[in-house]
Structures are given as structure tokens and as C-alpha cells.
Specification:
Elements (H helix, E strand, L loop, with lengths): L2 E3 L9 E6 L9 E8 L4 E4 L1 H8 L26 H9 L3 E5 L2 E4 L8 H9 L4 E2 L1 H8 L9 E6 L12 E6 L1 H5 L2 E6 L2 E6 L1 H10 L1 H4 L1 H13 L4 H11 L2 H11 L1
Parallel strand pairs: 8-9
Antiparallel strand pairs: 1-2, 2-3, 3-4, 5-6, 7-8, 10-11
Helix pairs in contact: 4-6, 6-8, 6-9
Length: 249
């Protein structure tokens, strides 16, 4: 995960915040800003960071003199976990969960918990109450992230956001998945129609009142009835949903 910003009013080039270590100059990893010249495919260290962190003259920092920058991220982010832990102890990073770190100035959105869960469990799918909240189809405010996994999958146990696991299989698990980018993370979320149908399938978990509210809100937005029937057949709840669909219209 690389955090960056680009404000032409401040600087004409994008800046990426990364971790770098130059053993001959400083023994520890340091968080620095890199200027990226997209036109010339050149990466240079920011002059302020060169002076503050490394005590070097900016003129001496030619692009070829620097090692390849390692992005700050979670699992597989490119840094040794010990280095990340050391940066966190020094107050330069925030430890989100085991193996997952974030920069202190990382933007936090209303869907922060979904982004964190997606980084920790990339194969899971946001479902039921969490998907309803994302799509604006409920007044519920779940304190857990609801994630769908295969019935035979091992249930992960890690620190981080609280997770409510829901098991499905076959086409009922793999159909209706959308991918949304939240806080630079790809998050797999069931579509509005699939989520409404899942609420009827798992009405014993979420409550029939939640399923009916989601159905009314979905139809109020002129959501496709054909999509509902499509997923209802896949999830085998056509008979359950039929009277409610006829009533809502």
C-alpha cells in the first residue's frame, strides 16, 4: 500500500510516502517523501527529507544513488516485519493488525473497516448487514464486518476489525460480486440485488424485518426485479421471496 498525494498548486509532481534505508548513512528505515517524475520515469528523494532524516545535501541524491523504495503495506508489502514493527514503536506508523500497518497521515473514510478487512481477508466478500450499509439499503449500523466465505474454508482468526463470518458455497458464494476501491484497497462486495436476496436466505441471522426494509429501499430506487429473481433462484429462496415481491411491486 503506497500512500501518495498530488496537488499541482504545491508541487508539479506527485509525491509518494515510502520507507527507505541507506545503510551507509543511517542504520534504520526512514519514512520519506519521494518526488515521482512521471514523464521521465525518475524517482527522487524530497530535499526536505534529505536534510532532516539523512543529513545529506539534496544535490548529492541523484536518482541512481538511491535504492529501490519499498512500499509500506501489510502482508507482502515488501518490508521485513521487524522493520515495520520498529517504525511503529518509533511512532512513524500505526499498527492496524498483525502484519498490517498504516502511515499516520493515511486518510480514513466511512468505509475504513471494510478496507481493513479486505486487506486482511482478500478472498472474503462483504455481505449482509455490511453490504446493506455500504449500498445504503438499511438503517442498521453493524459493529462487525460481515464477510462471506466458503463452507469448507478455514475461518481466519486475526486481530483487526471484528468480523462476523457467513458461509456459503458454489454459485451462491461466487455470484453477484462487485469490486470497489476503498482507501486504495480492492474490496469485494455483493451487489445490491444479491445482498437483498442473501438477507432473505439468512433471515434467521439478520432478521426478516431487515430483509423487508432492504427490499423496500431497493425497489424504491427502481432496482431490477429481474436481478432479484436471478439471485433468488441461485440462492433457492424464490418461494420465500415471492409474496414479498408481489406486495412491494
Amino acid at each position: 500500500m503506497i500512500r501518495g498525494f498530488f496537488n499541482p498548486a504545491i508541487l508539479p509532481q506527485p509525491i509518494l510516502r515510502v520507507a527507505v534505508r541507506i545503510p551507509a548513512i543511517h542504520p534504520d528505515w526512514q519514512l520519506v517523501n519521494f518526488i515521482v517524475d512521471t514523464g521521465a520515469a525518475v524517482t527522487c528523494i524530497h530535499a526536505i527529507d534529505a536534510i532532516r532524516l539523512f543529513g545529506m545535501s539534496p544535490a548529492s541524491l541523484a536518482p541512481t544513488a538511491l535504492p529501490n523504495p519499498s512500499p509500506i503495506g501489510g502482508i507482502g508489502g515488501g518490508l521485513n516485519p521487524n522493520h515495520l514493527a520498529r517504525l511503529a514503536r518509533r511512532g512513524l506508523l500505526t499498527r492496524v493488525a498483525r502484519g498490517l500497518y498504516a502511515s499516520l497521515d493515511a486518510p480514513v473514510s466511512e468505509h475504513h473497516a471494510l478496507a481493513e478487512a479486505a486487506r486482511l481477508y482478500p478472498k472474503a466478500v462483504v455481505c449482509l448487514l455490511s453490504a446493506l450499509q455500504f449500498h445504503g439499503l438499511t438503517t442498521q449500523a453493524p459493529h462487525q464486518v460481515w464477510l462471506g466465505i466458503d463452507v469448507k474454508a478455514w475461518k481466519p482468526t486475526r486481530d483487526g476489525p471484528q468480523v462476523r463470518w457467513v458461509r456459503s458455497s458454489g454459485v451462491a458464494l461466487t455470484s453477484g460480486i462487485e469490486v470497489h476501491e476503498l482507501e486504495s484497497a480492492p474490496v469485494r462486495i455483493y451487489s445490491p440485488a444479491k445482498t437483498v436476496v442473501d438477507c432473505f436466505k439468512f433471515r434467521s441471522k439478520v432478521g426478516l424485518d431487515v430483509a423487508l426494509e432492504a427490499l423496500r429501499d431497493y425497489r424504491a430506487r427502481r432496482g431490477s426485479v429481474d436481478d432479484l429473481w436471478h439471485y433468488a433462484r441461485i440462492c433457492r429462496v424464490s418461494n420465500v421471496m415471492q409474496p414479498y415481491l408481489e406486495a412491494v411491486g
